[in-house]
Request: fold
Amino acid sequence: MVKRALTILMLVNCSPCASAPRESGFALQPMNRNDLCVTNGIVSVSSGGWLAIDTPSSRAVVRTQPVPDQVAEIRFRYLGPTRTSKPLASGELRRQIGLKLRAENTCNLIYAMWHIEPDTRVAVSIKRNAAMHTHEQCGASGYLNIKAQGRINLPPIRPGEIHTLRTELHDNNLTVAADGKVAWQGSLGNEASLLSGPPGLRTDNARFE
Reply:
């Protein structure tokens, strides 16, 4: 069976160079607002053509058929904290942005998140709740934090700065790059192979373009 890889470039100003092939050999396809199914929060379009997020919580997935191997990239400008904040289920008040992979539903998916506050690092987790499909069913249950085989410390993200987060998932091996440098790399284990869904994005307590 021939393997396919889904390549996505999200939250970008759709310039001609946006779909240029990268070193990995994949050509990224720009996504616009109509390509996203927003399941939480508000994702709008700014006057400059960028997508805009200013709600304490946002979740979205790409309207596409899922494939096992996924390459996704999000280029974003951090604008600072949201006007109001919403702590995570753990009670921690975290500001972050990240990519969802194999997002079967809100209860079963992979997260690769770039923390902005209170720490500055990339964290990867699998949320797995078999036979559950809605937030009312699973809440914040089923998270498994995945330990990296290799990672680097990241500098703080300042308001107004533009950064890029990229994920490459092949089989159950994930590489996450922040601004072109590998920030997290490792195996997700067998749990990841049980998931099937499109890529997407998530933000918490921060404003972005």
User: Anything to note?
Assistant: The chain has one helix and 17 strands. Residues 135-138 form the longest helix (4 residues). Confidence is low (pLDDT under 50) at residues 11-23. The two ends are 39 Å apart (CA to CA).
